Structures are given as structure tokens and as C-alpha cells.
Amino acid sequence: MSKYEPLREHLARLDDVVWAAKLEEVEQIIGSSLPRSAREHRTWWANSGGSLVHQNAWLDAGWRVERTDLMRDVIVFRRLRIGGTVVAGRTANGSRPVQNPQKAAEKRLSKEMAALRQPATVTLRSEWSPLGDVQRTPCTNSTIPTESGVVRFAAMSGDDIVTAIVATRSIQQVYRSLRMSMRGREGEEEAQLGLTLLEEAGFDPKAPIECDVVRPGNAWLLTDGRGRKANLDDPSECKLVAHLLYVQELQSGRKSALLLR
Fold first, then answer.
1. Calpha distance 26→173 (Å, rounded)
2. Residues pairing with 22 in the sheet
3. Is a pLDDT exceeding 60 seen at residue 252?
4. How many CB atoms lie within 10 A of CB 228?
5. DSSP string, 35-57
């Protein structure tokens, strides 16, 4: 009997159409380690069959390899036909006891969670639009957006740049608040956010502070290579973009503060 026979039997018994398997999981099923080429070469997982007993294991079960991700040790199998082999036929005609609904739900959830737990990469692509020096650019300037977005304020602290990232429903409101607090108008309610920003970021209100913004349409979220424009009008998505930009600041070695308003 081929050492890959347990893999054929496992696939034949599956009820699913797609199975995303970790290589360690395949090794547990066959009861031994996969050869080195299985971890290094996608061709090992081809669907040519013939004299290749390991490929015949899934082909005979009615499955094929749809995708290989050897960087993550994941192989995705897809069912070619319903029924599969004789093993599958015995399963279908009731040779195994029927599980109760609770057990069936637990089994299905366990399989689905295995796919959900696969590593995911979420990245952000954004374009900053400069607004300039806060002291020099008035709030009434037409370049100050009134819409939602993410604001970055930056100042010098000795030889280093420190920044503050703010997610906001109104870029103009945040900009105006900081400008008012820098001009000594702390008593006004509108300046309170600016005071908080100065304190948390450690900015000197008398020093130059530059401002950049990410406006709606200038941010894209990409998950495992698939991307779409971020909806900055959605508060939760705007905060997500701000968090990712904040992490980018920290990874760049800059001291930064994050404010979510």
C-alpha cells in the first residue's frame, strides 16, 4: 500500500468542496514526513498523475491541487467530482453512523476555522497631501479639506521628527483646533482637541508644525493582494487607516502619538 493511501482516504471522506491544508496536517494524515521537494517545489503538487503515487492519491479521490503557497506551507485542494472513490461511496451509503446535528456543526466549524486561521496580510497604500506650516496657513485657506480623513502633524524635537496621527470626521476642525491652541486661545472650547494633541505629541506650540492629510480616495486597503479604496467616511475604517499609518510611523523609527476622534 502506498504511504499516501491515508491521504486518498481522507480526501474521499471529506464533505467539503475545498480543503486548505497545512503541510503539517498532510504529514499527520499520512503518518510520516513529506519529502523535501514537497516543501520546495510547486511541481511536486502538480496534477499530472501517471506513475506519481502521491499525485494519484488526490486524483483518485476525485480532487486536484488548485493552489500552492509554499511560503506559508499551505496547499489548497478542490473537489473534481462528487463521490470520489469507493471509500467515498461507502461513506455516502451509510457505512458510518450518522452524526447528531451538534457533532456535525462542531466538525464543520472546526474545518472552517482551519481556513480562517490562515495567515493574512493587510497593507495600506496612501498618498499624503501637504497643507504646510500650521502657523502660516489659515483655517480659511481653500486647501484645508472639510471632509473626513487622517491628519498628520509633524515637528522637530531636537534632531528628531515627532508626529501625531489623527483620524477625524472633519480635517478642518482638527486643523483649526490645533491652530487656535498654538495661538494661545486655550479658553475656547474649539481649542481643546488642539491642547490634547499638543500634550500627547509633546509639541512645542511656538515651534513650526507641518501638516499633511490623507483624503478620501487617497487610501487603499489590500488584503492578500486584493485591494479597494478605503472608505474614510466610515469612522471604523478611517480609524483602521490611522492605526496603520501610526504603525508605519513607529516602524520608521519616529516617535508618534495616535488620536482617534
1. 56
2. 74
3. yes
4. 9
5. PHHHHH-GGGG-S--TT-HHHHH
